[in-house]
Amino acid sequence: MPTAYPMLRVPRIPDKPRKHSMIVMSETCIPLRATEDLIEIAGSLIDYAKLTDHVGLVDRLEASWIRRKVALYNAHGIPVIPGGIPFQIAVMQGQEQAYLQAMVDLGYAGVEISEDTMPPLATARRRDLITRALDMGLKVMTEMGRKNVDIPFNAEEICEQILGDIELGVSKIYLESSEIQALYQAEPAALDKIAGLGRNEYLLFELGLINAQDKAAWLVERYGPEINFASVAPADVVAVDAIRRGVHRKGGYRYFAEMQG
């Protein structure tokens, strides 16, 4: 389909399905009409839609509405995944099996098995939950780091767990935005160690709500435009894509330097 300016070029991103240059958008169960508007403008940029109205999903939104939401995204080639907080509530309330079954019944493409707010799971139990979800046909996303940054971030242990999760069959691994916020300001070498694993197709660097576009610009500059982003708000999707391509103020309009050679 011809664009409005077919005579011009900007850096391209791969066609879907992508392993690199991905965006996992997080949205708080916005209305279906707003979802349609978002897909119209930015659907080609969104690799997964993540639903993060955690209270609403438990206490307000009907299952039939979630199925309609999932079907709308799926019709445009966008798989849907849940946020990790309800999983953690399910574990603490002894409802993890029922929760995993609900993910299947609602039509989610996968499940987030995270422990960034709850007490960390024992290794054997965590592995069992990942295996159970995979056996049920769900893709599994895991997460490294803590929302409240209340446990020291040990890059060596994180790298070991990332490699172990990949071996188990985990599809994608989030790096918690709160940890990135702290590390990119104070200890970027820890992030360098993780990026240096050479498994970046599995990694999703969360941008979150704080300085998301500045964080995206720093990450692209340090690790390159193929980096995968998660926790991208709907309002930031287009800007984050432009930052990646070097055609945005936050990224210093890097593409102009590239055109000059």
From TrEMBL:
UniProt cross-references to Gene3D superfamilies, sorted A to Z: Aldolase class I
InterPro entries xrefs: Aldolase_TIM, ComA_synth, ComA_synth_sf
Domain of life: Bacteria
Family: Belongs to the phosphosulfolactate synthase family.
The protein's name in its UniProt record: Phosphosulfolactate synthase
